[in-house]
Each structure stands twice: as C-alpha cells, then as structure tokens.
Amino acid sequence: MSIRNIHQLLCLLCCAAVMPVFAQTAPRINADGTVTFILSAPGARSVTVEGSFGEALKMHRDSAVWTCTTPDPLPSEMYTYRFKADKRLLTDPLNPRLVRDIDDTLSYFILDGDPGSYYQRHDVPHGEVRQVWYPSSFSTAMSRRRLSLYLPPTYGEGDRRFPVLYLLHGTGGDELSWLDMGRLAEIMDNMIASGRAVPMIVVMPNGMADQDAAPGCSPYMTAQASHSNVTSWMGRTEAAFAREVVAYVDSVCLTLTDKPHRAIAGLSMGGMHAMAISANNPDLFHYVGLFSPQAVTPLTDTNIRGIKRVTSAIGKLVDRSPLVGEKTRARYLRGAEQVADVDVYQHLDEKLREQFARAPGLYYIAIGKDDPLKTFADRFRRRLSKQGCPYYYHETEGGHCWENWRRYLIDFLPRLFK
Amino acid sequence: MSIRNIHQLLCLLCCAAVMPVFAQTAPRINADGTVTFILSAPGARSVTVEGSFGEALKMHRDSAVWTCTTPDPLPSEMYTYRFKADKRLLTDPLNPRLVRDIDDTLSYFILDGDPGSYYQRHDVPHGEVRQVWYPSSFSTAMSRRRLSLYLPPTYGEGDRRFPVLYLLHGTGGDELSWLDMGRLAEIMDNMIASGRAVPMIVVMPNGMADQDAAPGCSPYMTAQASHSNVTSWMGRTEAAFAREVVAYVDSVCLTLTDKPHRAIAGLSMGGMHAMAISANNPDLFHYVGLFSPQAVTPLTDTNIRGIKRVTSAIGKLVDRSPLVGEKTRARYLRGAEQVADVDVYQHLDEKLREQFARAPGLYYIAIGKDDPLKTFADRFRRRLSKQGCPYYYHETEGGHCWENWRRYLIDFLPRLFK
After folding, report:
1. Does B125 touch chain A (CB under 8 A)?
2. What is the pLDDT of residues B214-238, one digit of tens each?
3. Are strands B362-368 and B392-396 parallel, antiparallel or unpaired?
4. Cα-flanking dihedrals φ and ψ of residue B125, to 5°?
5. B105 pLDDT more than 90
6. pLDDT tens-digit readout, A278-304
7. Can you say how many angstroms the Cα of residue B182 is from the centroid of all Cα atoms in its chain?
8. Where are the alpha helices (DSSP H) in B262-401?
9. CA closest to B218 among chain A residues
10. Which of A199, A254, B104, B126 allows an S-S link to A133, with CB 3.0 to 4.6 Å?
11. Phi, psi dihedrals of residue A148, rounded to the nearest 5°
C-alpha cells in the first residue's frame, strides 16, 4: 500500500464511525426475565427510572454509572420509561428506541412473548404505511387534513379490493398515535401472516377538530399536540367523517365499499367518535369497537350549554394569562368559537335503535376495571340494553392505557370481516 | 343543570387536559431575531445549550429557571439543539419538535425566511409519503428491505406518470433520514407549489448493506443505527440497486421509465453510491448529484485488501470485548463476512468515460469549503476532467452537515427534468 492509499484508507475508516459498534443496547434484558437499567450520570445526586412497568425504581451508583434491576421478571409487553436524575426527566441515551405519546417522548423496549411478539417486526410480509392529505371543509382555516393508511402486504398486486377498518385515537393523539404507541403496522403484519386477521386496510385519521396533522407536520399546529378536546367533542369531526374521510378513502384506495366490509373503532375520545359516527351513519359500518370509550353517555343540550359556559370561562383565562403564547391563544379561541354540529349527539336513542335494527355484525365494548371512565361505559351499556341493542363486552384488568388498547385491538381484529 | 349533569361535565372537563393550553412554545423567537432558550432545572449547577447555531451557550439561573439568548440574530435555518445540565445531554422538555439524526434525538426549531421557509409546512398541496418493503436478495438474512417514497400532490389523479429522483442518505442514515433531517416532503411540496421543481417521485432507499430498515423498524436491527459502512462500501448496495430498487419502483409506481426522467443523488456515502450506481448503469440516470460525496476516489483492489485487514482487526476486538452485546457482535461479524461485489468500483475510468459519452443532462458536485472530504472531491473532479467528463461544481461555505445538504437539494431540484 502506498502512503497515499494509507492516508485514503485512514480517512475512510475515520468516516466509518466504528465506535458505535461497541455501544451497549439498553436496557439489558436478563436471562431470568428481569430488566436492568443503566445510566451514566457522574454528577447526579439521585436517579430513578419511571415507566409503564410499575412503580418508579431507585437507581444505585456504581462509580459514575447508575443501575437498577426490576425486583421481578417483567411479563411480555411494550414498556415505556424515562430516567429522573435530580428531578429532571430524560430518555435513555443508550437506547435509540423512542416513541412519542402526545407531547412526551419516551424510551421503550419490548419483551417477547404474548402480547410483546405482536409488537415486534418479524420476518413476515410487511404492509405499507402512507401519510396522505385529503380535502376537508369543516374548518375554514385548514383546507387539508392528514391521515395515515396501513395497506396489507398483498395490496396493489392486481385489482383485489380489501375491507377497511377506521381506527381512531384519543384526546391529544393524532394520525400517528396508533402507528407509534399502538404498534399498528407490526400487529397487522403479524396477525395477517398468522391468519388471525384477514388482510384489510386500516385508516387512521386525525380526530382533533382544531388541528389538521400531528405536531410538526402542519402549517398550523407546528409545535404542540392539541388537547382542546372540548372542541373535538362538538361533533365537527364526527359530522364530517362520512363525507370527507370515508369518501376520500373509497376514492383513492382499493376498498370494498359495502357495509359488511367496513369497521370503525377507537380508543377513549375515539371510542366516543366511533359510537357517534356509526350511530349517525347506520348504513356504513357493520363492525363497531369502543375501546375505553370516553363520555359515551351522549352530550345533551343541557350539557352542551354547560360546557360552553366553562369553555368561555377558560377562554377568558386564556385571553388574560401572560403564560399563553399568541399562537396558542389564537388557536384556542378559534377552536372555542367553532362549536357546532351538535346534531350528531342528539336523538341518540332513536339513532342507536335504528343502527341496531339493521343488526351490526359486532358492537364491541372493552374497558379496564380501573378505568376512571368505567362508570360512563357502564351507563352507556345500560342504555344500550334498555334500547334492546345487543353488544359484546370485554372487561379487563388495568386502566386507561395503551397496554389495554393494543390488547383490545388484538382481541377485536379476528372478529372482523369473517 | 342537575347534579348528575354537573358531575358528568366535571368528568368531561377533567378528561380534557386543558392545562397544556397554557404551555409555552420553546425556544422563544424574539422580535429582533435572537432566540431565547429556557430550561427548568432547579438542582443543576451548570447548564449550557449546544446545537447547530454555533458555539455552546452558557445559561444563567433565574430562580429555578435557566435561560440564555443568542448574542446575535440567527439567520433563517432549521436548527437542532440539546441542553447539557451538569454534563448530561437532554432535549428541550418544552419543545415537542424532535428529530432523529442517526442515533441522536435532538430538539429543533425553524426560522422563517430563505431557506427556513422551505422546511416549514405551508398551506399548499401536499404530496404523500409511503414506507414500503421490497424484495431483496443481496443479503441472505434479510429478504425484504424498506424504502420511503414521496409522491407529488397530483399523483394518482388519472394515469399521469412522473419522473423519479433516487435520493440516498449517508453513513449511519436510513430510509427516514431525508424525511426527518432533510425535510424532504416539505421542500418538495413547497418547490412544486412555487413551480421551482417539476412534480416528481422521490425514492429514499436504505443504503446500509447490513440493515434492512431504520432502527426500531426491522426484525434484525431493532435497536441501533448501523455504522458499519465498511461493509456498505463493498458494493452490495450499489450492485443490487438497478435490479432491486429501480425495478421495484418502476413496477409499483406511476413512473416515467426512460433515462431522461431518472435522477440519482446522495449525500456523503450516498454521494459515493450515486456515483458508482450511475457509472455502472450508464443507461439509467440522466441526472446525477453528489452532495459532499464520500471517498469518490474509488476503492482499488489494494485499498479493499487493506480495509479487509483493518476490518478483521476490528472484528477480533468486537469478538473479545465484554462491552459488545451478542446481537451487535453477530451482526458485525455477519456484515464483515459478506464483503463482496467490489466489481462496481473497478474499471471506473472506463465506466465514467462510457457514462459521459452518453452526455448526462447534469453531473452535479457540491461540497463545503470546510468539509474534511473536500480533498477527495477535488481529486475526483481532477479525475473527471482528465477523462474529459464535464460536471457542474457548486462550492459553498461550511462543512459536512445537513444545512448544506438541504441547500444543495434546493439548488439541485430546479435543474431536473426540464
């Protein structure tokens, strides 16, 4: 080798950044099923790790490195976590797996088994994920809204058409929530490959009435997730759904467009949306899923007046507070003014009777025993029973959390389009 | 309102999480163009903010809140940054805008103007982004690889076919790099809307030979970005490109399949790949862009032997080090064994002469004055000149960084398909 070649070679290798080859994958999954967290924090006085695995764990210093191991083996699941070093939250610098949950970015890991293996990518055919923008007219400020699509692995090979599941997120979520926290693409790939679910299109719209797309993806909502679900309860999302979302998807995708091949499901606020959208469109959806549904006891005229009063009080606070940025203020007030389309919540008993008179293939309600919204779900179930509307009820452990919503999806999917 | 209604209303409002309405958007862009960073870190002893805006800034304590303002107004750009509190790096908890750059997750903000406005989403027609998996045979372990697609706003309205730009990432990057750090979808939307670029399809494959998809998206590379570009220099990505990537895209997208409607460009390692792929397929690409290209002086047999020796030494180190996890070790050794397809780098003078004999529409080379790879680019330009191969050269300020690559793209796009 000439000097010039050696110089060239060294430059090549310097560029190669070989160091990360030595990086440790974190956290460490031990042979006994416990998990060890590691954080290099030389100057810290106290460090804990907190996450979806249970109570926060105190970490112990070993020279500059802080570690701790879960006292028990963890069951199979997708776990999110963060460190708290001297009261400051931080993600795991050794773990590049990050996921956004509304406004929080969290580190995560997945433990194999049931259900964790559903959330891992395996060597099976993979579907396609698309982010598309569709024309919308329900907000004068935003002429386009974004939605995510999952297309099954055989989509586009020939003219074959597929059934469609419309899958809705909760308050503060967006068109990416089911893909990120919900592991939708991995679950679909794995369940289609094993034959537990039929190949289907999954449509994930953005259900927040005052935003058009996820944070950072929009000209309007550039920085923050929207939490103003007061405005998202006022029916605009639901009223526009059939003529905007369903019509668009049917116009651009290879969909089966008859009722037996359409399902709608949602979590929390999305459960309420799924209820209202399906009740207002009794000829559209043969399958309905309400996962930990929020406020399924419908809004009445009285409640709406009350909410308007409270919203107005919050509005005045927003208007005065020096802590509120101009954009947030403008957006909030814009949202508060656009209260409309409450029709979708009115005459609900009649609408439900009409929906159930046409015998839906499945009306599925799932909720955790510890969910603070359980009393609402119970009341809504009584209301259904009183109207003579049969439903399938799945009560589980746990509360209002993604662990449940992913499992509800896995339980729900095999019941569709059979 | 009845007591029951009030209870229901309170529950609704508790669920509404109205607090984040009051959250401040960070960092603060001041009227004079300076930027103020804010971090609540009550226990910290020293805090700095470091980022792409220049030298790290020392932050000052004001009760529990640390702040600092840039000494000068910042020019229009997309800026990434992190805080360092007592030696620990953390993203900005007040700013939900995060972007991944290889293994680092960074906070970012964008200042309007030129070029920043290109990187913002505006109210113009938006193209579609897809992640798809295509069959691949160049690695026995991975039968599918993932790529990202940008489809222009009018794609799919009728049978209209579009020209295609293949856009390649650098070492450690993946099929998401141009979308995340590169703001590809926003740049395309804005340049197509203003007429500065013609509507085109952009294909962003994964060019790392030992990974099939971005971290967290693959069954094999579940945790970490790949930095083993020693194996990614060995020609496997380039040798398979035409028969796998181009053939797949032409089979599933509405592409114009003749040479005048195909372009290829890449940054750093991707620039080297674009050079090798276009030289080995002289009938495929009419437009070629090398952005800060890496090692465009081709690998010779001698160098490859040298790299094999160094790789083998690193391999032994990987094999022995207790710091290396089993998966990393296995992957590294698998990659190191699969050195092959060096044909694409051989007889390059002849290949370049053949390529230029067919008069490419554009052969574009851009690099910054401070780029450590500039000597390679200079040498490659002399080599081109010696072979009588005309090229367009764009030399800029700055170094090996995304600020330059985004600008090179904006400079390159208007020259395509005219």
Report:
1. yes
2. 877 776 644 455 555 455 666 888 9
3. parallel
4. -60, 135
5. no
6. 999 999 999 999 999 986 554 555 566
7. 5
8. 269-280, 301-320, 326-337, 348-357, 374-386
9. A121
10. B126
11. -105, 145
Residue of B nearest to A305 (CA): B1
Chain B, window 342-371: residues with a beta carbon less than 8 angstroms from a chain A beta carbon = none
Query: Quick check: helix, strand or coil at residue A291?
Result: strand
Q: B260: closest CA among B418, B135, B368?
A: B418
Residue count (chain A): 418
Helix axes B348-357, B374-386, angle to 10 degrees: 60
Task: Tell me: pLDDT of A14 over 50.
Answer: no
Looking at beta carbons, which residues of chain B come within 8 Å of A229?
Answer: 15-17
- Out of A56-70, A202-216, B119-133, B349-363, pick the least confident: A202-216
Q: Which residues 18-57 on chain A approach chain B with CB closer than 8 angstroms?
A: 18-25, 41-45
Predicted confidence at residue B83, as pLDDT, reads 94
- Interface mutation vs chain B, best among A11, A14, A15, A383, most B CBs within 10 Å: A15
pLDDT of residue A230: 55
| Average pLDDT value over all residues in chain A | 84
Q: How many CA atoms lie within 13 A of A83 on its CB side?
A: 29
What CA–CA distance (Å, rounded) separates A323 from A391?
46
Task: Please judge whether A219 and B120 are an interchain contact, meaning their C-beta atoms are less than 8 angstroms apart.
Answer: yes
Please, what is the end-to-end C-alpha distance for chain B in angstroms?
Answer: 67
pLDDT of residue B329: 56
Inter-chain CB proximity B8 and A328 less than 8 Å: no
pLDDT digit string, tens, across residues A170-196: 988 999 999 999 999 999 999 999 999
The least confident of A44-58, A206-220, B9-23, B205-219 is B9-23
- The answer to whether A96 contacts B100, with C-beta atoms less than 8 Å apart, is yes
Residue A264: partners with Cβ closer than 8 Å, 6 or more residues away: A165, A166, A167, A168, A274, A277, A278, A284, A285, A287, A288, A289
CB-CB under 8 Å, A314 with B86: no
Residue A11 pLDDT > 70, yes or no?
no
Q: Note whether B303 contacts A: Cβ–Cβ < 8 A.
A: yes
Judged by a CB distance cut-off of 8 A, whether residue A117 touches chain B is no
Chain B hits for A87, Cβ within 8 Å: 42-43
pLDDT of residue B95: 81
Sheet holding B65-69, edge to edge: B28-29, B35-40, B65-69, B60-62
CA pair distance B362, B129, nearest whole angstrom: 27
Query: What tens digit of pLDDT does each residue of A216-233 get?
Result: 777 664 445 555 545 566
Contact B324 A22 (CB under 8 A): yes
Q: Do A228 and B21 touch (CB under 8 A)?
A: yes
pLDDT band per the 50, 70, 90 thresholds, residue B376: confident
CB-CB: which of B16, B89, B132 is closest to A230? B16
Nearest residue, CB atoms, B325 vs list A24, A95, A321: A24
Beta-strand pair B287-291/B262-267: parallel
Beta strands in B102-143 (DSSP E): 104-111, 128-135
To the nearest 10°, report the CA torsion of B7, B10, B11, B17: 180
